[in-house]
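Sequence, please.
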């Protein structure tokens, strides 16, 4: 068997594994929450249709239901077709992860779950991969084969650049997508000066920020002398974790960075949540969806 055939088979196995898990999660857990978080309130009423599993009780049209003796729900104009964009940070820092998984693995799974939730709601899904420039744009489409292609790209895509520039990604997104859409910006946000672009993008679209982080960004155990390499700049330095003052300084610096990111997202008015590589993303994502759905 040639290496390329073997690699293709390995890739397809990975795609299948992610498809089974993410499709299951979006069916069992996220579908109803996604629907209520991103659909059907304050929109122009369009028509009624028969009730489907996962529809909200509050969307039932009781008059039509009584007339036909079976449940019907109100459909709103934007509910028929919505575009969901995934803005995915592919910079070198995505390869960091010290507990359960790498940031990259978490991002892939997260994107797959969001994509399957979207197509179950008859939405189009598109992707922008970015580093310190836009690396790839996958235009929004519907359908399972499109989602599987996105998952393949998430697993297999190698960016040309290592850095991160969220500003550039948001500028491109705002220009490329003309009609209002829902967008998930998925990044560790280890980038500077993106606040204005966040505000602009959020005025035109419905933007949600998902911050991926690893515990080791703020907590360093006593493991002696450690060599650090910055994945984005290639800069190498040694760090003595046996000294308590070094560990305290490392933690303070990490907390300061995370605090600045949290404050920038808060000021921009963008809905956001943090997702750690050491924990399940299900609860934080459900909490975010429920918070939006209850507004």
């Amino acid at each position: 068997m040639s290496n390329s055939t073997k690699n293709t088979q390995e890739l397809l196995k990975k795609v299948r594994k992610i498809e089974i898990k993410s499709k299951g999660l979006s069916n069992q857990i996220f579908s109803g929450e996604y629907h209520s978080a991103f659909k059907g309130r304050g929109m122009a009423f369009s028509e009624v249709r028969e009730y489907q599993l996962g529809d909200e009780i509050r969307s039932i049209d009781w008059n039509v239901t009584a007339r036909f003796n079976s449940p019907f729900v109100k459909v709103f104009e934007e509910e028929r077709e919505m575009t969901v964009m995934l803005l995915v940070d592919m910079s070198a820092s995505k390869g960091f992860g010290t507990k359960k998984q790498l940031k990259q693995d978490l991002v892939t799974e997260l994107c797959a779950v969001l994509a399957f939730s979207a197509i179950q709601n008859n939405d189009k899904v598109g992707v922008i991969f970015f580093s310190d420039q836009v690396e790839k744009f996958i235009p929004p489409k519907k359908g399972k084969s499109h989602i599987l292609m996105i998952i393949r790209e998430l697993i297999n895509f190698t960016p040309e650049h290592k850095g991160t520039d969220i500003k550039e990604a948001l500028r491109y997104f705002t220009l490329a997508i003309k009609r209002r859409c829902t967008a998930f910006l998925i990044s560790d946000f280890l980038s500077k000066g993106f606040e204005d672009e966040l505000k602009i993008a959020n005025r035109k679209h419905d933007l949600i920020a998902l911050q991926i982080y690893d515990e080791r960004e703020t907590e360093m155990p006593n493991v002696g002398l450690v060599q650090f390499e910055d994945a984005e700049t290639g800069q190498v330095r040694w760090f003595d974790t046996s000294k308590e003052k070094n560990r305290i300084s490392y933690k303070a610096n990490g907390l300061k960075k995370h605090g600045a990111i949290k404050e920038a997202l808060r000021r921009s008015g963008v809905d956001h949540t943090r997702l750690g590589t050491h924990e399940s993303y299900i609860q934080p994502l459900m909490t975010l969806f429920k918070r939006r759905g209850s507004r």
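Helices lie at 3-38, 62-68, 103-120, 144-156, 166-176, 195-204, 244-268, 282-293.
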